[in-house]
Amino acid sequence: MAAPTTSGTARGVAKARDIESMLPPELRLVDDPYAAAMAGWRTPRWLLRCSGHGLRQAISDALTCPGYVQLMVARTRLFDDEVVRACAPTAPGEARTPCTQLLILGAGFCTRGSRLPIPPHVRVYEVDQPSVQAAKRRLMAEAQRAARKSERAASASGRIVYLPLDLSEAALDAALRAHPGYDPAAPTVVTVEGLTQYMPAEAVAATLEALGRATGPGSRLVASYVDARVHTDPAAACGEGYPAHALARVAAFAERANEPWLSSWPPPPPGGRAAMGPFGRLLAAHGRWRAERDESAGEANEAFFAPIGRRIPPSSLCMMERFVVAAKGDSGGGGFGLDGGDTTE
Ligand SMILES: C[S@@+](CC[C@H](N)C(=O)[O-])C[C@H]1O[C@@H](n2cnc3c(N)ncnc32)[C@H](O)[C@@H]1O
Asked: pLDDT of 137-151, one tens digit each?
């Protein structure tokens, strides 16, 4: 299948971030000043502003699936928090190595490298397919010129290194090592956000393997994956009263955008440790990543929306993806040697 010239799915995520950014500071989980430029809205900006957050979220619910915007927003916030924490200087007595590199795989229209408060010495690397990355760079340059962004944003964007690469075809570690500034021994925080479902399971495993070779001790990894039950038993993957059939609309959208879902993994067994779940075992077997958490959107709902009075009811809670936080470690999550990947085509 030919690579898309830009990514419709990446635009969808940017749209979700733009919708969330309309909320007042005390109510929003994410503020992405570049999301509007990245989203490629066809609707005039003035009309978008008039329509307001509630209406735009309701339109998204109808066109994608209920709770899609909130799922993307919770995912963004979880990844943001992990990246900021990983790069922050350590507190006295804290046993952690601050990461000095941020590696964003399948970056799409993610603006994390420009908008997060991470120390200036942290180097940022973005990887995506050449055509998508070219579109992102053009849009980002336009957005920054138009908005004359703050000094922080301008200097942050200047430190981003763009690596155009199809991860299903080329070796990631070779591409990173070929870049003179990249240090494969440095503690690195890696994000694999909204990417695994677009790659065959074997390519995901190979990428994790490459990451193991291209990151130093103390590295961290945050990833998302599609819950395999979306394909096999959608109702089981959803909250009570959620219209499970609506999930098929999201997969169909990806298919139409020429970005079909190729892989998914079942969640860990109820009450089981993250490292024991199929994705946790994949991480352990490829690159020796130790999964610390493997969370559902339900857990993200409690962590992020509930404390600010925005708890999503089960009937609107989209749970098609899960989020995993892992550390680079030799323990290998208990020495499992199985992939556990379910490839759904
Ligand atoms: C749903 S978007 C997510 C973008 C971004 N991570 C975010 O969350 O906003 C998926 C991204 O993965 C990229 N992608 C898909 N397959 C890829 C591959 N084989 N190699 C590199 N990037 C890929 C797409 O181009 C797209 O930008």
From this structure: 999 988 887 766 555
